[in-house]
Amino acid sequence: MDNKIKELLSQLTLEEKAGLCSGKDFWRTKPVDRLGIPSIMVSDGPSGLRTQFDNGVDENDSRPAVSFPSGCATASSFDRNLLRHLGEILGEEANNYKVSTVLGPAINIKRSPLCGRNFEYLSEDPYVSGELGAAYINGVQSKNAGTSVKHFAANNQETNRFSVSETVDERTLREIYLPGFETCVKKAAPTTIMCSYNAINGELSSQNKWLLKDVLRDEWGFKGLVMSDWGAVYDRVKGIKADLSLEMPYSGGHTDNDIVQAVKAGTLSMEELDEAVSHVLEMVMNYVEHKQDGVFDMDKDHADSAKIAEESCVLLKNDNAALPIKAPADKVLFVGTFAENPRYGGGGSSKIKCYKMTSAVDAAKEAGLSVKYVKGYNDDFETTTSALTDEAVAAARNADTVVVFAGLPESFESEGADRTTLDMPQVQNELIEKLTAVNKNVVVVLHNGAPVAMPWVDKVAAILECYLGGENIGTAQINLLFGKANPSGKLAETFPLRLEDTPCYLTYPGNGRTCIYSEGIFVGYRWYDSRKMPVLFPFGHGLSYTTFEYSNLKVSKPAFKDTDGVEVSITIKNTGSVEGKEVVQLYVSDKTGVEVRPEKELKGFDKVSLKPGESKKVTFKLDRRSFAYWNTDTGDWYAPSGKYIISVGASSRDIRATAEVDVTSSSKKAFTITPQTTMGDMLRNREMSALIKDDFEKACYAVIGDMTDEEFEAKFPFTKGAMIEMIKSNPFRSNRGRNGVTMEDILNQVEKYNQALDK
């Protein structure tokens, strides 16, 4: 705390301090005019700045702004530099509109494809969410604008989001739902963290001391301010104690009074209140001292929006090189209202009034392409008429290539409500089926914020997933469809075949009061790949108009200590005829057998641009965390000693090269040994196995002796192998009474084991 903050704290009254802990109105903090503490403004803005002319939330009363691709799209770029660039643009816009803090990025994990807000989130994988989230934050904050990473934590559904309690074990929190936030804190130092509405294991995030103080502040070293989501506060005093500094929006003065009364009653100390107020003052004064005048060109940003979309679109299917389109433009048919009225962003707090909309129809005209366009279905995207359908089918008969623009209307996915199905509107699916019946060269261009079912997948020639691509998606689509740009996006989430296949199908979205995360750490591809389940399109999948060869995988050392880490390199070559970009993905598989873990987990990615025939070496650095899981016994990350497989490939299901490494753990003790511990527990761990080996052999000999298999089976009703497994599974306490062994003997032996491991 600097001297300026200390001085202000000494001059503020109790009532002023309490007042600073909540908003002035919907978007601004409270000022204290007599001390020169101004009010500053925050604004929604993960994919475009939404600032209001007044104090409301109505989209129609907001200023026009450039709409960029949503998080579901930009994550598919797998490009840290691109996310940083997007952040820089938004930082400039924030400066122009005198916005202190952009309320983003949103990095919650995509637990289920049904979550209505998945369009705003980045990935089902915490490594992707953290890396790209941190890049975005660094971009925004490089312009001296602030950020607010949200929604901390486990905000993975819209159903009952204000009150539901997520029942989730600590290992799952640590491995899946918290690491993205941890990466953002440690790699980008965000200005603020926004807590979520929901409770975690019965405690609301807005007053969860373990989450906000013990983990975020003390363990991760977060230096910024924790603010509430809008209206998320229940017990303001408990929130202050838990490290929630700023409640948004204005509370009508009620919670300010709660704080004042608590201090007077002695249930909240002045030191605790000062800590909260200091974070608010630091945010305000830092903005005042470093604010810049924004200089930005909306036309340039509009063009940048198209470039970002180009990098983010994913080519899911391309049979017989159907794309890029080679037919004359006048033999190309565009079908579907999305072609002239694309869905550029999601509904809810991230929705903005876009500066300028460029559809595929608009962009085709600007490019001088005389494609034909028919609507195919009504403007609501959900209904049609026989006349519209007949017109589309008739036109398709005479076209060389049919491009169907399809997807989800905003009514299907939005903040505040979850989807109930993976299906697109029936009229769109039926239209695609009818078009494929009369034309074998049908291309589907998708507009959606999350995975959809594709009953026609085997009948179409190509599929281009555009997600919600911002206001200039049309330009990106034309460039990609006609080969001016090459698709390079990869899926940051798995597209399942059926809703019933999803990891949380049986428990999502819960019973209204609670939602049990029964799938644990097996979220997304961790579930599908571990179960070897067929999927529609796997995590990391994405095609290109060129091809890439992977070769010469090298590890810097085949065996190493976990704290030393290892360097992995591989050579990527463009073996096609056009320039392209490949997202190289590195996965780690634990083969030690010490703990139940996913088949593989993403621990590195890089996007490399290659001209035809060009090769580049891609290098990854893996540290201890790359091999570790959260050990609930020790309350720390733990990488067991043993074998691991490093896999590098083009998706989680397209592995091109593998290498085996041997890791030695820096921690000898995986858990505290008790009388309930079994020899098998210890034998699964290399360090513990060495300690127990002689005792285990003695225990086996005491029962089996020198008997042959035949002699043993004549004496016992099971095999020698089964007996050995039973000896492994018996806890130490079961030896009590055998050969005069007492519980004291057992406790002494257990203590010797623990002391040996503690050395």
Automatic annotation (TrEMBL):
One MF annotation (Gene Ontology) recorded for this entry: beta-glucosidase activity
Transport is among the record's keywords: no
GO biological process: carbohydrate metabolic process
Gene3D superfamilies recorded: Glycoside hydrolase family 3 C-terminal domain, Glycoside hydrolase, family 3, N-terminal domain, Immunoglobulins
Domain of life: Bacteria
InterPro entries hit by this protein: Cellulose_deg_GH3, Fn3-like, GH, Glyco_hydro_3_AS, Glyco_hydro_3_C, Glyco_hydro_3_C_sf, Glyco_hydro_3_N, Glyco_hydro_3_N_sf
Protein family membership: Belongs to the glycosyl hydrolase 3 family.
Protein name as annotated: Beta-glucosidase
Natural source organism: Treponema bryantii
